[in-house]
Amino acid sequence: MNRSLRGRAYAVSTVWTLILLYLGSVVHATESSLACPDWPTCFGTMVPEMSGGVFWEHLHRLVAGGLLLMWGLATFLTFRETESGHRARAATAVGMVLLLIQAGFGGLTVLMRLPDAISTAHLTMALLFLGLATALWVSSRTDWMSSAGIPEAFRRSYRVGTAHLVVLVLLQSMLGAYVRHADAGLACPDVPLCRGRLIPPMDSHLVGIHFGHRVLGVLILGATIWVGIRVLRSVQGTLVRRLAAAAMALVVVQVTLGFVSVLQMLAVVPVSLHSLVAATLLATAVAMRVLGSAPIPTSGQQVPAEEGSP
Question: What angle do CA 21, 23, 27 make, to 5 degrees?
């Protein structure tokens, strides 16, 4: 069956993670990160008054706890539906470790009063988990994997291009996290220039990391459009083509939201959407890469999803 229970659990976990990442961005943008000064409780209780910053911070914690439970179910279903030694078993176990580490970093972020490195690591673990959940979801779908439609002559180029795209978007998201937590979001208060210049004076490390984030964003814009156009020209599979088109649209929206965030002095809505679109672009790039790992079906034969490498 194409849509197994574990596949549905992977899908829910992927969407759930995107929601969690969005809420995390809202927490920071509304300066609610320390609204609950203790951890794992909030003012000594698990049911604080949900008002002001406490609402966003505690809601973020509750959604994170729900994701742990959801992934626990996904892991259980994976072990129930697969045989010993199946790669999905190891992958779900790794996912659980990532979530636990991420939760630990979340606690340290509060207890240590928002250190930049710990806060960035907290988001990085969430992004890595998002990639893993997405890969498991896509590889669990027999119909998607068997209808990728990537020509053999283009397959190697496709794999290399999409793999590079995944790495670039992940690095950009991590750098963006550091820009956010180091309060470098307005180190360049103007767009598209930075301090009125194409290349600003690097008289502060905050300017350097902000400017680096912009430069990498432009590189990803070009790389995504280049990969997307090549896919649209070479691939017949409808899903892969749609993902390529979605990636190109997302990267344009992402860059636009970055500019709007600066122009609106890091207003909550554009900043939070900027983070959400970045995470969605990462998940899209991972899905594209996974589909490139589908074995080439022989005539009249479909490829089992489990043979596709996440």
Answer: 115
Q: What is the pLDDT of residue 296?
A: 64
The model's pTM is 0.92
The token duo for 267 is 């207003």
Q: Is 27 helix (H, G, I), strand (E, B) or coil?
A: helix
Percentages of the chain per state (helix, strand, coil), in multiples of 5: 70, 0, 25
Tokens of 172: 């950009």
How far is 249 from 231, CA to CA, in rounded Å?
Answer: 14
- pLDDT mean values, one per 10 residues, the chain (310 residues): 81 98 96 95 95 96 97 96 92 97 95 93 96 97 89 94 97 96 94 93 94 96 97 93 98 97 96 97 98 67 38
What pLDDT is recorded for position 293? 87
Assigned token pair, 278: 């970045």
The 3-state secondary structure of 128-183 reads HHHHHHHHHHHHCCHHHHHCCCCCHHHHHHHHHHHHHHHHHHHHHHHHHHHHHHCC
**Interval 52-83: pLDDT, tens:** 999 999 999 999 999 999 999 999 999 999 99
Residue 130 makes CB contacts below 8 A (sequence gap 6+) with 14, 17, 18, 21, 279, 282, 283, 286
Burial label for 42, CB within 10 Å (0-12, 13-18, 19+), is buried
Largest CA distance in the chain: 63
**Count of helices and strands (H, E) across the chain:** 9, 0
Quote the DSSP letter at residue 45. B
- The CA dihedral of 249, 255, 261, 263, to the nearest 10 degrees, is -120
Q: What angle do CA 267, 194, 248 make, to 5 degrees?
A: 65
Contacts of 171 (CB under 8 A, 6+ apart): 216
Query: Residue 116: what residue type?
Result: D
